[in-house]
Description:
With 146 residues, the chain is α/β, with parallel strands linked by helices. It has helices at residues 15-26, 39-43, 55-76, 91-103, 120-125, 133-145, and strands at 3-9, 30-33, 79-83, 107-110, 128-130.
Amino acid sequence: MSFQVYLSGEIHTDWRDEIRRGVEAAGLDVVLTSPVTDHDASDAAGDHLGEEREGFWRDHRSSKVNAIRTRTLIAASDLVVVRFGDKYKQWNAAFDAGYCAALGKPYVTLHSEEIVHPLKEVDAEAMAWARTTDQVVKILEHVLRA
């Protein structure tokens, strides 16, 4: 069984690499995709469409260009992993989780116990809540090999 997994959320740690290494070590047939994780490149995604004087409109335009990738990859995924870090609030990750819920797309949240309360609605729709990347890999192993 092959699986396509979209890795959404926090971009300031190497959690995606940890999952990638775990998937490879387990020999799982998984294709991992993600949003643009270079913060500056993401912010500039729409800059080639013309100069904006106001930050709101620059962000608006870039978010729409970024959404082409995000929506396409989420729609093509069998599972989405949504990572919420402790240091920054990832509003985009919460949006991705809501988008998955609206699509009926299975998703797993990945975050510490310290932010369970603010994520209670997001976690309520998730198929699982993982605290570590190893737990995410174990979920994938179960789904693909059970």
